Amino acid sequence: MPPAATGSGALQLSRVTICVCILGLAAISAPPAFAFDLFGLKLFDDQSDKDTDAVIADPVKYSVTFEAGTAPGDVASAAQNASALMSGQNEPASGSAGLVASARGDYRRIIAALYDQGYYGGTVNIFVNGREAAGLQPDANLAQPVAVRIVVNSGPLFHFRNLAIINRAPETTDEADKVDSPESQGYAMGAVAKSSVVLKAEQLQVNAWRQQGFPMAKAGERQVVADHATNSVDVIIRIDPNRQAAIGPVRVTGTENMDPEFVAQQTGLVVGEPYDPDTIAKAQKRLNRLEVFKSMRIQPDDAIRADGLLPFNVIVQEQALNRFGVGATFSTVDGFGVEGSYLRRNIFGHAERLQLDAKVAGIAFPIDTADFDYAFGGTFTKPGLFTPDTDLVAAIGAERTVLDNYTETSVSGRVGLTHMLTDQVTLDGGLTAERSRFDDDFGTRDFATIGAYGGVTLDTRDDPNDAHEGWYANATFEPFYELNYGNLIGRATAEARTYFGFTEDDKLVLAGRVKVGALLGPDLSEIPPDKLFFAGGGGSVRGYGFKSIGVDGPNNTVTGGRYLLEGSLEARYKVTNDIGVVGFLDGGYVAADTFPGLEDLRVGAGIGVRYYTGLGPLRLDAAIPLNRRPGDPKYAIYVGIGQAF
After folding, report:
1. Beta strands 146-153 and 41-44: pairing type?
2. Which residues, in sequence order, are bridge partners of residue 330?
3. What ranges make up the beta strands (E) of 460-507?
4. Contact at 8 Å (CB) between 490 and 477?
């Protein structure tokens, strides 16, 4: 419905039935006119307010009062939030012309907000120093500070009456291709006639055609009729499905170091396969996983070829070949740690990458280098082995770790495959080898192991670094053979995490985690300690030292165990966009042969602060052990990047 201005300059809807696709302009008694956009159609088009930034004038201070009369609270809020004058009143306008231009724009913005709430008979008055803004010239002389008064009358609520969709997409039995029906989103007789519902109904039908192989489907001519006598709206939506198509050749542009043929191969798009937007979205994700592009998009040609194929263009911009990184951790129990990394991308032109990592940890005062932890390693990844979703991963590392319960010196290596079964499910498996020496309560022992590993991961989190909803689950199994003692050992773990966001913007998030582990094999003295289970630390049971919770032995000794159970609960509340607070409770225990009773559970509790950055939240946690034993700290403070889990 196009708006019309009354003699006083107020903006309102005409009181006769009008077809929006036959645009009629009502007379405006006070010039100049203004632009208004409804359902994507321009009803008025005034060039004078399109480039207000080009008008250079002295700043004009103003204040705004907003009156919505009897409009419901949500309608009044929507209208008020749509006003640029309201949102910008803390900053001066760019001269009189800038203020007048903002006021003119507010007419259309507020009316559009009313339409979106289902009110097609409303009026809007905007008074600037008592004069209707629609009648002001851009160079009007305004006494400062300027008083702006916005008066909104929402009028009656309109409902949908007669609705139709021409060229509606056929129903499909394929669950992957199903799209919500327009009726389920409010496009139904008797429902509130929100303008956004009409637009959404159109888009749903366009998407439904595209899901069934019609990539050029688009919305056609739309007819919207508002009847003020009955406060009802009739709508006819037309969809142009165009032709069904199959995937055509893939062209790649913008590569510098990457092989364009490899990029095309990694999309997984096969010429001749039926077009499916889900296939294109999956191709986009495959290319994103290569971690070599600063920007990337997959764009179809403008038209389907005569042979029914739709070619695609992959347009990329590559990232720098080299990246350096540094990080730090701190715990009052485990000391200070620093780490660095170097990443080399695209080594041979097929997105291969090599990452080198080095770490020094366990730095405490007074400084004693004999107690430092050292680690160095490298990981090579070759994407696109066998399939676009399969990566070869090979890693080698060396470390020296000094813990309260043992000291480890070791070198290890692994090689295996990682396969993205779906967007949410990842499989991995391969071979491992390790040679190590341990000094602990059993003395000095040497171990040499060869084995295999396999795992599956389910990840539906909305953000891995700061999840608000979703699940994460991981299960692993590691059979290995220890050569020095001649033992076959099997180790299995399973972990699940879940997140629930509350309030509209997920300011409050409740998070939970549980982890279990089991190990089958010989006597504990013949198993490498790093394969046994320990608990405690910033990612385990806070309030205790890293790997300080194990199996109690004679003379206050602690060893690792065969069984592990851990759990955590967190309540995360975002106070501002940058600051959040956390309360948490962690628990866990380790057993030698059988699980002990709950009375043996080691529990830690505490609070934390989060500072949110573009790379993830910075974390500061303070925890105390609730059932402290001799040797346990009185408290522990942890500093790191990212949520605890």
Report:
1. unpaired
2. 336, 639
3. 470-482, 487-502
4. yes
